[in-house]
Amino acid sequence: MALHNLTLTQISQGLEAGDFTSVEITKHFLDRIKQLDQGENGINSFITVCEEQALADAKAADERRAAGNASKWTGVPFAHKDIFCTDGTLTTCGSKMLSNFIPPYDATVVENMKREGAVCLGKTNMDEFAMGSSNESSFYGAVKNPWNLETIPGGSSGGSAAAVAARLVPAATGTDTGGSIRQPSALCGLTGLKPTYGRCSRWGMIAYASSLDQAGPMARTAEDAAMMLNVMASFDSKDSTSIDQDVPDYTATLNDDLAGKVIGLPKEFFPESLDGEMKQTMLAAIEKFKELGCTVKEISLPSTDLAIPAYYVVAPAECSANLSRMDGVRFGYRCDDPKDVEDLYKRSRGEGFGDEVKRRIMIGTYALSTGFYDAYYVKAQKIRRLIKNDFVKAFAEVDFIMGPVTPSPAFKIGEKSGDPVEMYMEDKFTLSCNLAGLPGMSIPAGLINGLPVGLQIMGNYWSEASMLNAAHKFQQVTDFHNAAPQGI
Amino acid sequence: MEWEVVIGLEIHAQLATKSKIFSGSSTAFGAEPNTQASLVDLGLPGVLPVFNEEALRMAVKFGCAIDAEIGKVSVFDRKNYFYPDSPKGYQTTQLHHPIVGMGHIDITLDDGTTKRINVTRAHLEEDAGKSLHEDFHGMSGIDLNRAGTPLIEIVSEPEIRSAKEAVAYFKKMHSIVTYLGICDGDLSQGSMRCDCNVSLRPKGQEEFGTRTEIKNVNSFRFVEQAINVEIERQMDILEDGGSITQETRLFDPNKMETRSMRSKEVANDYRYFPCPDLLPVVIDDEYIQSVRDSLPELPDQKKQRLMDVNGLSEYDASVLSATREMADYFEAVAKACDDYKLAANWVMGELSAALNKNEVEIKNSPVKAEQLGAMIARIKDNTISSKGGKDVFAALWDEKGDDVDALIDSLGLKQVSDTGAIEAIVDEVIANNQAQVDQYVNAEPDKRGKMIGFFVGQVMKASKGAANPGMVNKVLKEKLDAKC
């Protein structure tokens, strides 16, 4: 098998067995990135490729292995979403605003991966400041979906998804504020997990909406996602919202028996309007879980429809403050020849931010204004509680909640970029997880019109291990996760 | 028309924590610009605040000291505004759920009466950095060393009725926070700053007039001056039938006027909302009690104790307890000489006079409390006279020596208290002044008291001032009365 078709787990085992060195496999992937990602017809999934550093890290990893203190990750290549600050390496968050920003610090997730000796090949493309569902809002250009280069890969972790789907890296980090791991994972045929809020540290992860942002793995299989979450997750005293909960070995329980587990199917996730093929694909996947011994139960999450309006108040409100530090004063983009400080602010921000970011800052600023705060922000927080209560009630009766990740497979580049509301509807099945702080994942569930779609698995707080277990068992009896884009 | 003045103060006090409220950087004053600013203080992308528990403890201490309700759940909010010295584009503060709720303090008015001023609330927040407008050739520099220094903002009820009361209130707050050790109280370095809200209303009217806010007044004297000129300004406008504009003003002590800040700087909608990077701060009764138990003696308690236990007059007790520095100095003197009344006399007399005359603050006094105490102890044990004490004090002040006993020796101030030696001198003086002795013997007994002064003078002269005057008196009286 070609090296790039190996899964993360297989690469780890191959390194351990001495089948190849880290330098060899790192070079192999770097060559693929050159071939497939760059240039006009390239996928454009990377903003920065760290060739020199990656080769140096690979060499160091091989030495560490020779010295006998390698971990599972030592020498294994992967990529970081460009939202994670990397010490000494350009970190843009997909924005002109940070197009010159080289942080003097590592995000905790980055540090965790470094400690294991993982080899970061580069920083992946993303919607600007993680705002978008198509990866079209990046300052560095749209990312193409390897399954069909005319379609979007999803967003905001679209670069990570496209890179893994195109076998440019075996896995990549992502972040999910309203679906930004699950939606691109679904549209690119990956296994992606957004953990419980507080599981992975947010230190050094550039904030979009602080109360919703959460980092997680994007890989080809549940087994790989488990291996990755083992390292990404940690308690971090530098993040006050990080939760001091032991990190289990997520790979240890992958093969546990699913017999007797109860799956809830919320009727709100299967509305009349849901595409027939999508519905069939989901139900066929759920059939497989039945074969694995699960029972299925129809449930209701009545507040689901309120997730979009609540999210599009809370997230913009938080981002309107989070992005205020991008002011052209201390770092990042600054306009030419500012007349005075006000001119400096207005032009630096006016020129540095793209349209979608400006739109959300404006929405958030409006929602927090005197006279509107109670009607928007306070009400949205109440809806959050309703949504959370729906889930708490549901998880008293079921182990997992399943449904589609997206309403449809990947759409064409440019198809929805002119209509923000249409674009926002893309997230209708993913937002409630973030609003409730629950873990959610997407696993490949088949193809529609030759494009992948994902089954969403939601679990109770801190149930990542059982979710990965369910996904892994599913992948033992299905082949969807092994499908690869044509010509890649 | 007769006007009533209505004043409310907002005092910002920097908390004396070692590190900042949301980062590990040092809070020490005076370092090179931006050398005490961490990633968090610089507001770099992706960095997160972590609340410093020491700041919490200090704020709760303050709340206990002013007998306030303590917020068991307090919440940090973001106050959004753009300014170059505010690196995140928002200030982290507490709007709806402050750590300290309604409390009160008592101030003493000029006529000696006490007035209670209620404190609406006190909340925790972070200080901003500083913009530097000199030496940058038309540009501005930003120093973020101060950014993130913890502050408590103490908001009074509008119950203050004159500039003098405002100063008394500010001084009392200064005294409380310094007694508690939660603020160094150094006004010259901006450790305490005051915003004064001032309005006027016709006497007898219940409704408040329109107020103005004088920002960032940083000395007791300026508070009094700023409020007084603002009262005059408002009164002139109102007497002429005009109306006051609600606005923020700055006090210019050189021109002795307040002037309006540009309205653009104040017409902000701060868009407060709870900071999602920080969890609500939750404390329980046990925590509050442990802080309450750790409170030191506070100014009012000290004053009462100095009167009740140590026998000082109300005036003395009040002066000696008014500031932490005065109180600490006085207590050290009293401890060293074991005599509160003598200590009070010397601190309020000789020492205060020297400090005032030379414009020296008590913390910089060249005469240390321990030295003054040791000297007073020598007066008490009759080693030196009170007059000798003044000489020792003067020598200490001029830094002619450190050791009180060595100075007594070198200045030759030791009194002769040996009975035999004094009797010998007395006998000699009586023998040499027969005429005066005869006068004494022949005088009416009630006149003799005054006449003894002459003999005392002669004895002191003969002993070169070294004889213990009390003993001289006693021996003389015995010997002269024996002749009568």
Notes on the protein architecture:
The complex is a heterodimer of chains A (488) and B (484). With 488 residues, chain A is α/β, with parallel strands linked by helices. Helices cover 38% and strands 13% of the residues of chain A. Chain A folds into two domains: 3-257 and 472-482, Amidase signature (AS) enzymes; 305-381, no CATH class. Chain A has an eight-stranded mixed sheet. A three-stranded mixed sheet of chain A has the order 1-3-2, with helices on both faces. Chain B is an alpha+beta fold. Chain B has helices spanning 39-42, 53-65, 163-180, 220-239, 263-266, 285-293, 299-308, 314-321, 324-337, 340-358, 369-380, 386-397, 404-410, 419-432, 434-442, 445-462, 469-483; strands at 3-14, 73-74, 77-80, 90-93, 103-108, 114-126, 130-132, 141-143, 150-156, 192-202, 212-217, 247-252, 257-260, 273-274, 281-282. In chain B, the strands form four sheets. In chain B, strands 5-6-9-1-10-11-12-13 form an eight-stranded mixed sheet. Chain B has a three-stranded antiparallel sheet with strand order 4-3-14, with no helix packed on it. In chain B, helix 9 (324-337) crosses helix 10, helix 11 runs antiparallel to helix 12 (386-397) and helix 14 crosses helix 16. The termini of chain B are far apart. In chain B, 40% of the residues are buried. The model of chain B has no long low-confidence stretch (mean pLDDT 93). The A-B interface holds A 84-85, 91, 93, 98, 101, 103-105, 107, 202-207, 209-211, 237-241, 317-318, 320-321, 323-327, 329-332, 341, 345, 365, 368-370, 373, 377 and B 39, 42-51, 78, 80, 82, 84, 87-90, 140, 142, 269, 271-273, 276-279.
